[in-house]
Amino acid sequence: MIIKGFSIAIYSWQERYHFDQREFSWEEVFRECAEAGLNAVEFDPEPELLSLAQKYGISVSGSYMGLNLHEDVIPLEETMKPLAERLAKAGGTDLVVNADPKGGWGVALPKTEDEFKRQGEHLSRIALIGEEWGLKVSLHNHADEKHNAEGDLRSVIEYASPNVGLCVDTGWAHVAGYDPTDWIRKYPDRIDAFHLRNQFGRIPSEDLLEGDINMQKLMQALAETEYNGWLSFELLHNAESQPVRTMKEDIKRSVDYLKLLAAK
Questions:
Q1: Domain limits at 206?
Q2: Interatomic CA distance for residues 140 and 175, integer angstroms
Q3: Mean pLDDT of 199-216
Q4: What is the rounded distance in angstroms from the CA atom of residue 211 to the CA atom of residue 153?
Q5: Which CB contacts under 8 angstroms, 24+ apart, belong to 214-219?
Q6: In the beta sheet, which residues pair with residue 140?
Q7: Neighbours of 157 (CB within 10 A)
Q8: Res 155: pLDDT
């Protein structure tokens, strides 16, 4: 398996700063990411932020945007097109899209089959935007129960064009009742990206080494399916996980662990 490198979703850091009740610092984040062994960060590469990241040898792996994909009309011209242009010009490769919950965060009403189909149609439109800039477009799974998780998966596999991929969030897949390794083996041609996190049931674990998800089995599946994208973390340090180490320490532990598994 030859990967592009190790990255992390910026949300991980935002949550950690919130947990620590500290003011967010982009410079500190980029510096600590480099010290922890990361190659990139997933963020919106506005020119000043990109320059700051590059100061520490950090590149941009991709960008993430949540949209109400189940709705009739979504503002792609105003949102997705400018982001795709910034990302491509910055050298990023992955445009990760989240299907935001119906009813809003903390509500997550069940979506209808027509709404799942509509999500697929919107994703196909976004993939065309991505193609203009040489980007891979993938749907990030965020549903925490089976109805919406299964429907979001069908949005890609059944209702979207073949150039729409999956960004497998291992933590949310587990919470919804799935083994993320099963998705890798079942849809190897659609797996374009990852948000890697381990879990103790519904509680996020502090790093990838501990938890219910068998990361050794997952890495073996990636090797067997010849995955060649980024390995991006989304470690979640919050009141539920009660971290005892710093984010930098847990990133380094996770990077070293995946390197060890990849070498087996």
A1: 5-262
A2: 14
A3: 98
A4: 24
A5: 214/181, 215/257, 215/258, 215/261, 216/261, 216/264, 217/181, 218/170, 218/180, 218/181, 218/184, 219/1, 219/258, 219/261, 219/262
A6: 98, 167
A7: 17
A8: 98
How many other CB atoms are found less than 10 A from the CB of residue 13?
25
Kindly report the pTM of this predicted structure: 0.96
Sign (positive or negative) of CA dihedral 201, 1, 53, 134: negative
CATH number reported for the structural domain that contains residue 37 in this entry? 3.20.20.150
- Torsion over CA: 240, 110, 170, 138 (sign): negative
Instruction: Supply 237's token pair.
Output: 């340090």
Q: What per-residue confidence (pLDDT) applies to 106?
A: 87
Gap between the Cα atoms of 170 and 139, Å rounded: 13
Q: Total structural domains in the chain? A: 1
**Residue 264: pLDDT over 90:** no
Whether the CB-CB separation of 138 and 172 falls below 8 Å is answered with no
Length in residues, the chain: 264
Structure tokens at 10: 């910026």
Q: What percent of the chain has pLDDT over 90?
A: 97
- Tens of pLDDT, residue by residue over 182-198, are 999 999 999 999 999 99
The whole-chain average pLDDT of the chain stands at 97
